[in-house]
Amino acid sequence: MASIRQTIIQKGGNILNVYFTAGYPTLESTAIIIKTLANKGVDLIELGMPYSDPLADGPTIQKSSEIALRNGQTIINILQQVKSVRQFTSIPIIMMGYFNQMLQYGVERFLRDAHDAGIQGLIIPDLPMEIYENEYFNLFNKYNIEISFLITPLTTKERVLQADRLSSGFLYVVSQSSITGNKGNISADQISYFDKIKALNLSSPTLIGFGIHDKETRAIANKYSHGAIVGSAFIRVLEDSHDLEHTIEKFVSEL
């Protein structure tokens, strides 16, 4: 399986990374969604670990997490679901969640089991970079798990460079200083921010997320980075779907 960074660099741009919450809309749909996204040409899949106290997730993803937890989703089950689809696809799969989930599971056990299941990377928004570098860097390397740190319009240049240095997957460029799920247009201030990040000529590939919801916003993300991350918009179409494969095919084609 290719690494996350290799996948992005080899394609060179126009990366499409799709996020959804594992265990939503049903416990059994996770494997179906992964296989269908992979078959429809998505480059990366970001699998949300449902959590009751999220920091960065907007109402759409929060609701999907609540439903997934009611469905009985667990970390162990997510890893089993990923392992089951590895016979069908080698697409890079990233797990996104919160550090307390790793701590409760056991950090090294979590990294080991994620690797064994076929997970290539993690996005943990509330894991401080300093803690990662001082306490967990070697463990991530031991189990060959890439990490992607987030930056926002309020992140200082010094911390942008730190996130660039420490990210082994990609640099997650959060498009706005807010939670996920904004369906508005990209503003001039956001374009200025994207320009500023692009001008830094960072060593890590960059993907823009938060507020990317259609063909137009994806095109802007592609212009100023290596690609786009789409999450809430995808979850909204899953909510009303009576045929997951058809819904996913239509969604991806419209992007």
User: Structural class of the secondary elements?
Assistant: alpha/beta
Output the CATH class name: Alpha Beta
- As a whole number of angstroms, the C-alpha radius of gyration is 17 Å
The biggest beta sheet is recorded as: 6 strands, parallel
Brief description of this entry?
The protein has helices at residues 4-11, 29-39, 59-70, 75-85, 99-105, 107-117, 129-142, 157-166, 188-199, 215-224, 232-239, 244-254; strands at residues 15-21, 44-48, 93-96, 121-123, 146-147, 150-151, 171-174, 206-209, 227-230. It has 255 residues and is an alpha/beta fold. Helix 2 (29-39) runs parallel beside helix 12 (244-254) and helix 5 packs across helix 6.
Identify the notable features of this structure and list them briefly:
single chain, about 260 residues, alpha/beta, TIM Barrel, six-stranded parallel β-sheet, three-stranded parallel β-sheet, about 15% strand, globular
Description:
This protein has 255 residues and is α/β, with parallel strands linked by helices. It has one domain: Aldolase class I (TIM Barrel, Alpha-Beta Barrel). 49% of the residues lie in helices and 14% in strands. The protein is built from twelve helices and nine strands. The strands form two sheets. A six-stranded parallel sheet has the order 5-4-3-2-1-9. Strands 6-7-8 form a three-stranded parallel sheet. Helix 7 (129-142) links the parallel strand 4 and strand 5. The longest helix has 14 residues, at 129-142.
